[in-house]
């Protein structure tokens, strides 16, 4: 007797194939450094500290002008929440999640931080030699039985 349920769908006809089919790689020059918060707003100390924290995050090194503009708008919501307007909390939470504020957000966005060279040094292993393919650097000779 065969398995239960209908036969699996042909993989070539599936809408989702388990990979980012629509992902695009855009090569651009330089990123934009963190701007200052606008002077025309009376920013709470918590929002100033929050803004500073975003500037120190490794992910912010990839921010473009539009990302910083989005974060500046989000800072207005952050300031409103810290001055008692709690009705902005849901929107604030959604906006910081888009930028990967928490571990869960970064996992959902597939963001990982890598410090491979430092980790290798702490483990007492030398960093791999530059150049050549991974196979050339890491392939061990295979013993062949005759």
From TrEMBL:
Biased composition (Basic and acidic residues): 10-19
InterPro entries: Terminase_7
Chain positions covered by the region annotation Disordered: 1-22, 117-146
Pfam families associated with the record: Terminase_7
Protein name: Terminase small subunit
Species the sequence originates in: Blastococcus carthaginiensis
Lineage: Bacteria, Bacillati, Actinomycetota, Actinomycetes, Geodermatophilales
